[in-house]
Amino acid sequence: MFLVRYNLSIITLYMFVPLVLDTVLHYGFNSIEEPIVLPLPFNSFFDDGPKWNLKFYVFLSLNWWFAVEMCAVLQGPVAHYAILSGYFQTEIQIFTEKIKMLKLDEGSIEEIDEQISAIVQSHSNLMV
Hints:
The protein is mainly α. Helix 1 runs antiparallel to helix 2 and helix 2 packs antiparallel against helix 3. This is Odorant receptor.
């Protein structure tokens, strides 16, 4: 959930802050001639540079859609990789510690086999 909120906040800052900034600078102070445009795919359709017209706001909406889709497509595999890596790393560490705690020099072969079987069984139950 953190990743979703983080990505949406970054998208909002990347898209919304320039819009507010150039709107205030243009309409409030009349100090800039063109809107501030950050690199996004649909900005390449501005032939002679962006102006404050319907075309600008249509491409702005398309860029918002593109940015949200891009983050949604990218965050899924990254989040799943992070979750699975954390899970498997923890399981490998637990399995390693259990193996280190085996008492191979004490007890009979049957007791050692029981210990190993219990460790393998618990590991198999966690992984399935």
